[in-house]
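Handout, section B. The chain below has 1103 residues.
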Amino acid sequence: MLIFPRLGITVELSTEDDHFLRDVLHLVSELKLNDRYVDKADLLSPESSPGVWDANEPLILPEIVVHFTLSVFAELGGEALQLVASQELYGTDLCDRLGEPVAILLDGHENYPSMILKAKITTAADIFRPALGSEQSNNQTGESRVQDSAPISGDQTGNFEGLMQLLSQFNPSNGGRFISYGSDNFGNREDINRRIEVEEKAVRSTPDSDPDKPSRLNNLGNSLLRRFERLGNLDDLNSAIAQNQAAVNRTADGHPEKPIRLNNLGSSLLRRFERLGNVDDLNSAIARLQAAVNLTPDGHPDKPNWLNNLGSSLLRRFECLGNIDDLDSGSTRLQAAVNLTPDDHPDKPNRLNNLGNSLLRRFERLGNVDDLDSGIARHQAAVKLSPDDHPDKPSLLNNLGTSLLIRFERLGNVDDLDSAIAQNQAAVNRTADGHPEKPIRLNNLGNSLLRRFERLGNVDDLDSGIARHQAAVKLSPDDHPYNSNLLNSLGSSLLRRFERLRNVDDLHIGIAQLQAAVNLSPDGHPDKPDLLDNLGRSLIRRFEHLRNVDDAEASIVQLSAASLSPVGSPSVRLAAAKRWIAVAFITNHTSLLTACECAITIIPLVAWLGLSILDRHQHLAQIGVIVRDIAAIAILIGQCDKAIEWLEQGRSIVWTQILQLRTPVDELRAVEPDLADRLLHVSSLLDQGMKSTKSQNKGEPSLEEEARQYRALARERDEIIEKIRLLPRFGDFLRPLKLRQLVNAAKGGPVVVINVSKIRCDALALVYGADEVIHIPLPGFTSEKITQLKAEFNSILKSSGVRMRAVRDEEVEVGGDEGCKRTLAELWDHLVKPVLGSLAFSHGPDTLPRIWWCVTGQLAFLPIHAAGVYHTEDSSQQIQDYAISSYAPTISALLEQANPPARRPFRHVSAVEPSSGASYIPNTERELECIQRRLHNRDYVVLRKAGATKERVMKAMKECNWLHLACHGIQNAKNATKSGLLLHGGKLTLEEIIRLSLPHAEFAFLSACQTMTGDEELSDEAVHIAGAMSLAGYRSVVATMWSIEDALAPKVTDAFYARLLLDGERPDNRKAAEALHFSVKKLREEEKDIRMLSWLPFVHLGI
């Protein structure tokens, strides 16, 4: 409690504020006011004992101290203490009593009344910790200035360096005006210079032995850094680092001010890194900032600031070096800083901004749109919380504009683009020409305008964008580390104008700017592949325009450097590799195969195991085309073995990754048991954690924390595998298989891979015992023809209404037969007949051989297993009389399925007609009766109606090795991992099936709809329910390409189990394909009028 006797006011304070003001009095006693030193006795009225500072007793202060103390609070914080007056003084009387004396001290300060009375603070100590944060503008140029990584003066330990610094500038003869406070006064150079002069004099006049010397060095360093940030003089920055380093060196490790001084030194070093780009400065900054965090206990009010600064510096290192560990660690620190900061704290906008930047970077690296949306939300909150006159407002606007532009580029919403331009323009308008961030903000505005030109085609936007880019380059100092990004933006915009207006001068000048950008970027910088790719692309444009082969050669140099770079975004490197392949293919360059090999090795990095399955699928959506084109090139130049290996390596990426997580390590354990156990443990954790969503319960880690943990496990697994590959005989451990290994998949019959590319279409057959791949050209097939066939067949399915298992309307199907016959005849003539001929398959042998089809692209949606001529009774032109067809997602999958563990006793589970809420399927009961009759006295379990819950079915799948499901299947067009089987009380989704690891599973019969209908954008990834069953462990699966007719399902089921269980011995899943083949054949023979769409959908997957 403070008592102001002459004003008749009692001020009630928190304990912290009470102690704080007592320390103020200590400092005031050292201050020269009105040309005399104030003795402690002068500060105490007769009601209190002179010299006694009892924390439990009220302080009774003379009026001069009231004036001085209130003015200190007003100047520093722009806010007042929360005054609790006695009842008779509450209201306007309080204003009247305080206003006049404060006005005397703050003469000429136009806002002093509102400063004194308008606001509240939580603790007095918070006022003396002003937000001196500087700017952060994370955007496409790589500009990344750290918000709130500012020097902080003062803490709650009682020393109060910042307060002493400000008190030393109090000038009563100037109406109580302070020379400088906070970051709001940067515009007044005279004040900044005067402040530094005072502090330099204080440092010079303080003996080295004086305990206040480190404090004064620290404060001088902070002020020099502030002046550098305002005026950009590098000498100020170097001097600031020297002063901050001297302050740290003179401060003992146990000193309460050590964390503050370490933080300030780290902030200065970070600024120098941002200015000069020396990574040593960045590493040193991180070390100092980490030490500041380590020395600060939890609950300390400075902890959020130190966490914020450390997180921002780690983010900067990620941007520089590309290590995802830095990204995750930085994001964690920044989130913690935001969580610990109240909404009304002045530093909240800057900390939200930094967190938004980290989320944006994580989106750019990992591709999760949730991160992008969350980052934008943080940037919007930061802008909203920041006052319009705050010096950091332009930076916050700039970063919001950048994040909105990135979302436009991802999702294509023009509203995001327009909003991005508005935010970027506002940021530029609020930034003075001499401000060091002006070039970056101009550059970002130019980028936004350029994107709008690309979207809407208005040349005015293009010219305006180029003008901003030119201004940015002109304003930037020659040695600025972001110059390469600015030049890259200018060169790219000039290239766009050339492409639109065909002025060759734009092309030449653009290439010169892009070349300069590449020259300025150091090797090893993660942005360099992007710069190299842009330069390579511009050289391609000039080659196309002028046909100078030197430009083509030069583009290959740049694109190959980008593609082969050990750092940088895998997506950027893959894009560069695609361009490299295109130029090398057109010019018949000797590097063509190298380019193809490079692209194939990058693809798994794009769909890294550390991402969720959904994110990996999103990255892979357009990659199948690249892989097929690469295989076509290999075939064209006679490298069919390479084509097979590359197709295997570049397709079904997620499938392969999951299978590798479940790879036995018996051979490794015999040599290195510890490594084997570590690999199994980490792989098991990754296998369990493969999900895109999870409900969060109290006490469980957040989804974001789970994702970070998952990425950390993936990195640990990568490191373990690299160690294993260093062992003798383990150099190829978990590497892609070679042809000599793949050919073993053909032991049961030929494996035919069909490659569909715009370059050419071919079949590549593996025959066990053959030394080479059998190449079967398909000249009658083209990518365009296959796309047309698929579109026509989709139209037939749609018009026939065969998307759900149900009773069919025969009249609807009548028109579909003729279309089916045309499609199947095309498949026979141009695909299946040439393949069977090359493999010397004969018509109607006593024992039909097996054949496996590995199809690519749009062929995955066409019924190759039924290809033939059906317009006549002659069956000599139908595949069913030549071979038994099965499908395989990859050759490796067949190898895996052909090597099962020891078989367990047969046990069968049937789940039929669960009460799912979907339409009733009447014949599932008949289907169950058929199964029970054929199984007879074998071990089986039945789950039906309400008993067929998801939980019980999954439990039975683990306990039984044979499965039959008769229910509704459903395909999710937006997210294929959400496709699934409708059971009682819920859906058993594809992603849930994948997470099951069923090493003893043998066979699954999926008598449901669309269980082998894949995602059209992921045609090479086997993203369907049957594929999920195979991944879970089922080595043989009967599925459907579209819906089946309810009345026919029991007939197929009965014939299938009758043939499979014919000999009375243990059922063999390896005979499932044969049983399905003959059960469908029997159905066609018995049902003379059967429609083609009723028997065509049944297919077999696996061995």
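Note. The chain has a mean pLDDT of 81. Compare this with the example in section A.
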